[in-house]
Write a structure and sequence with these properties.
It is globular and about 85 Å long. It contains 18 helices and 22 strands. The site of zinc ion has 4 residues, from helix 4.
Length: 593
Amino acid sequence: MATYANIDAFVTKHLLLDLTADFDASSLRGTAELQLERRDPRATEIVLDTRDLRIQKTETASRNGPWTATMFQLDPATPAFGSALRVTIPAEADRVRITYASSPSAKGLQWLTPAQTSGKKLPFLFSQAQAIQARSFIPLQDTPAVRMTYDATIRVPKDLVAVMAAEATPGDKGSGVFRFRMPQAIPSYLIALAVGDLTFKAMSDRTGIWAEPAMVDAAAREFEDTEQMIKTTEALYGPYRWGRYDLLVLPPSFPFGGMENPRVTFATPTVIVGDKSLVALVAHELAHSWSGNLVTNATWSDFWLNEGFTTYLERRIVEAVYGKRLAEMERVIGLRDLAQARTDVTEPGDRTLQPDLKGRDPDDAYSVVPYEQGALFLSFLEAKFGRDTFDQFLRRWFDEHAFQSVSTGQFLAFLTNNLLSAHPGAVTDAQVQEWLHTEAIPSFAVMPTSDALEKVEQARDAWLNGGSVESLAKTTATWSTQEWVHFIDSLPRKLSAERLSSLDRQLKLTDSPNPEIAHVWFRLAISNRYSTAYPAMERYMVAIGRRKLVVPLYRDLAATPDGKKLAVKIYAKARDGYHPVAQSTVDALLKPT
Ligand SMILES: [Zn+2]
């Protein structure tokens, strides 16, 4: 279950944080107060999740009573789950307060030096709690099965601004003290904090951008359709229930594309490419306001309920706002990513919709399989029952499970009662079971196609069969990121040096400012040992810490002895700038054999 918490004895209903961001010590320190509902009258201790926390003091109190110091014990740590914190709790107490400090290497925090920011003058801190890293900066019940509201006071150096995924109390700017309130009950993995030289630019009454000053205008232009996306999603799946929807653009070391922190999505700057071609990321994180944040996977093995649903919703939003062409490309590219992920993972269970996470940090099982296989499953249901019927079904799913944590079993029961039995014969139980358990795409899946990507393949074939690179360049002039990525990714893995360099000269691929295009080009360069691209690749791998963009490059390089040497050399320069979760992924890839 990835948690030590004894949630059959106590559940947290409300959390009160008072934390100081100490940039000199790279530590968050202060107090966390958990207001509890007791479920077992005989329980004498509460067990909380922690990882690398220094615990100074524990106290308990009854609702209005005074605080009294109490005993605690920190169990030995395991690499997967950290340490259980056992706090003795008297029968009448229903509050526990822990005074603590996070470690400089806290897995859920990244402390950036000024040099690692775009402004270069002030430091930056951000958190990433999903899946089980909230425990590295707050002692709590770190499981998506428990939902709580919270209030937080965050103390920072006076020239910095703190933003949390919560309502901000106005009037704090410049004081160094920021207060937040999260009135909706959320699971611990959605607690989020960023501190830096952050400025805000509104896009509509309820949407805006938080970013460093140098990034804010470009981000507001790229993401200007956010309000329209919200309206579109509301029309399909019901009201947006979180008040504001802002985007916080992080420095490029953010290890993920985006993180759906409620009210404020945290996003990588690598999707700001000037033509809105990568705004599916916003559609995705926004969709989580329904699938994930509103209706939440109860365990990390049910992750597909968050990500498969969200990937399906993401493409429906893209289709409604940007048209079928882009949505179809996204679906076909998703299919290719799914095949690649199934090749890359080493545990067979990780090829299925529900990986077996026993004893594992869910992050170690992370792949796109729950995303893409889940989305294909829902597209299959849509095709079998018709779009209108399926849309109504999904809307009911969200309405009836709002602010709840749900299991795959609950979804299957809801599916049977509301769709399968109402339309007998359309989809069989055996088909549903195959979607859940197969390590492949079921033979009866409804496969996406894309005319646009077929045209890309025709252009590719014409060039491979002797067409001129100049005529290829004419075709590519209007291509979006997706078309470029598909073109480069679908080229043969071995090409002559002459062909590669003529392509590079004509299409300027080594110097592409688009991180997605550069990524697939560097992979092709590695498989051909096209060393002209290596200096640019090295700069890229040092500047960007997004796992999806850098990890495959390390993996490709590590496949040959020479390549591994280069990878180790690049990593020596890059590692300090990476987030702890990216570091642990690359450490594992490059460890000496
Ligand atoms: Zn997601």
